[in-house]
Amino acid sequence: MVDLELDDGLAVITIDRPQARNAIAPETMEQLHTALDGAQGATALVVKGAGDRAFVSGGDLKLLAALRTEADAAAMARRMRSVCDRIATFPGVTVAVLNGHALGGGAEFAVAADIRLAASDIKIGFNQVALEIMPAWGGAERLVPLVGYSKALLLAGTGTILSAAEAERIGLIDRVLARESFDDEWRAIARQLAHRAAGEIKRVMKGASTDEAVDAFARLWVSDEHWAAADKAMNRAK
């Protein structure tokens, strides 16, 4: 099951498959597409797993074992890549909330987001090589700009599994949060990102031209939200 929560501009998509440690099955891919359709218009997007044991434990091997031809394997990879691509290109800021371990395809799902927040006791790893396969959902390509080519190749080539602290040190995870306050902290950060300006900042950082960047600023400058915030700031300064 994939749940969608909409909360005043913040969309939260949760993979809830406790029986499979939130592993992704073919049906899950379709449900993720449906949830992403429902999240359109949100100013920020969170993706997470249910519970505290697994963010996403990769693909559901019991169900994906039915794929026995190259054509079937390629079709599955393209379908899940399209989910990750939609997360990566979502107009608002996207946040992967690592409530539990993110392994194999789970790590790929995590790096599709703009930002990764992790509970202090989780582990993350691109360990597909343990099954004599490779990342297929865009994770290898997205890992390189995060940690650099040589580190990315070492991690994915050996299947090394990192602690949250190790992953934060190399830039794979952006912030590690205490387990005791994890739910409150990730939601507070996500709420801070759920506004139009953050989405425009994201677009500019992704490579907007000078004209596009200036136009984005000008649109925000004349918005009601800007003038309301400016009035509050000026009143506080009196």
From TrEMBL:
One of its GO terms (molecular function) is enoyl-CoA hydratase activity. The keyword Zinc-finger does not apply. The keyword Lipid metabolism applies. PROSITE patterns: ENOYL_COA_HYDRATASE (PS00166). It catalyses: a 4-saturated-(3S)-3-hydroxyacyl-CoA = a (3E)-enoyl-CoA + H2O; a (3S)-3-hydroxyacyl-CoA = a (2E)-enoyl-CoA + H2O. SUPFAM superfamilies: ClpP/crotonase (SSF52096). Keywords: Fatty acid metabolism, Lipid metabolism. GO terms for biological process: fatty acid beta-oxidation. Transmembrane segments: none annotated. InterPro entries: ClpP/crotonase-like_dom_sf, Enoyl-CoA_hyd/isom_CS, Enoyl-CoA_hydra/iso. It holds the Pfam family ECH_1. Belongs to the enoyl-CoA hydratase/isomerase family. Could possibly oxidize fatty acids using specific components. This is Enoyl-CoA hydratase. The lineage of its organism: Bacteria, Bacillati, Actinomycetota, Actinomycetes, Mycobacteriales.
